[in-house]
Amino acid sequence: MNRLKGLLKRVFNPSLRILLPLIPISVVLLIFGLSEEFTGSPVAYISYLLSAYTLTAVICALPKMAGRVKSRFWSLSVIKKINAGKIGHLFLNNIAFRGTVSIYQGLVLNTVYAVFRGIAACLFSSVWFGAISVYYLFLAVIRLFLVLYVRHLKKYRGDAEKLMLFEFKGYRICGFLMLHLNSAMAGMTVLMIRDNLHYKYPGYVIYLSALYTFYSAITASVNIFRFRKLKSPVLSASKAISFTSAAMSVMALQTAMISRFGENDAVFRQTANTATGTVVCAGSVIIAIYMIFRSTYNIKKIKRKKLTYDK
Asked: Where are the domains of the chain?
């Protein structure tokens, strides 16, 4: 058993001298493997296997790399200069400030991705891409609501109860907005699965979609743990939006990839889209309902406390 563990460790935890060159090589090979000229060829299969291995090795190496990167990061002269400034110091050392910045960042990226999907929908006459574009556009509107809501939090900084009550009210509004949006998207997904719709997209659309999907999934996962200890309903709403957005982008990427590489297998396409669509849409609706119930419960709890104090 120990020999097996040692062997697996050596295989999936190579030195950085081996791992770092593997990353660009895997990316280049994958680009060739996904192109029409090499579809189904040995190059394609080798690129898939090498990419899977490289991704696994990178994930295994992350804890070790994180410590080194962190120590080198703080020793950089540029970072020291940024840390000397007021805003730079806040961003690098104040987690609450970074949480607020992440809401603005999410708004910008949501809007850009919605525009990208909208342009793709027009170029390729894709109703599904159009629906996704509208979905992300409305998510951007919800994020804009959060941005405007955050700007009013300063009025309640001196009163913890009023601040929490105000935040939970915003959290509940986001829950209602997300419930309506996700319910509509679930209906569109059902139609897409029922009619077994599929569209042909060029490779660059898939690459850009994959890039956004990986970024949003990683960011959403990190933020769930990073901002949890702040116990801010507004930041929790932002995390819920990010998580829902990441889940929907996974489903959108899957439909694009199946349409590109499995267009002749209608049964597999419908089965895969049904499974992923059910999990994503049901999960998104459940998250929205949870937000509504949680916020309503806490609002009532805070108001009961306030009435007790008034008496």
From this structure: 2-75, 94-310
